[in-house]
Input
Amino acid sequence: MENRDINDRIRESAGTFIAECDHDYRQQLHDAAGAIARQLGARGPVILLSGPSGSSKTTTAKFIGEYLTHFGVRCHIISLDDYYFNGDSGRYPVDEDGNQDLESPLGLDLGLLNRHMTALAQGKEVKIPYFDFRSRKRDRGGARPLSLGENEAVIFEGINALNPLIADRQPKAIRVFVAPTTPLTRKGKVLFDCEKIRLLRRTVRDLNHRNESALGTLTVWASVMRGERKYITPYAPTADITIDSTLGYEVPVLGYIVKPMYEQLPQDVPQRELVDQILEALPAIAPIAPEMVPDSSLLRKEFLAP
Output
């Protein structure tokens, strides 16, 4: 995506530009749902959907589930997050900084997860757990029963869904990887690479949905990226279906929100170089007010305030 092309489209009609970008993204998901529906008979009902932080896994999974109904398939969605061990269980590995490694698949109850996947594929009933992030405990009272009937499927979505510790135990499962993969360029040179786009996404999401400041997001970003390179992106090539979740209008919208927050950060903030690069690049992009983004948009559903 060239910044000049984006700026021209925004000046011409930002609303039309947003609608066209949303249509292109939705078309990918419709096509993915069709491909999945055609494979379910041979591959079974389990779908594994992975992607790095800020890739739009949750909303993409929901949209694919909706489109699967167009192909006669009822779809259930389960978050791998609900299989985390209790925060005080002592089961989490430790990262190189001595903190709990929240990116590692070993923080998940892999035994229970794989038993549930296998049982669902066999048509048996299981009780899906619920993990309460406020207490960092698995809420036993929140477990919900689930079994799959004819023409039903289940998407397990999470950062580690394609990790071999999970995916190799379900060799017939359909594998999906989602991430923004189209950088924003200026005169052929990268202005916003996909890491910066995802950092903008996560900064806004954490503010609106997790009551976390920009400083808080930047403080954990190095750990997030380290875990991504170790546990997530190496397995992207194993996906049967890859979805590019980049939206041409997201940097104009997210940059509009993030710019004043980043300008107020202290000089010794973590990721200072990355912050400066973003601030230097934003003036080249025409802004779009968040109010222009419709409720049906991926950006609205997963990152912006409702």
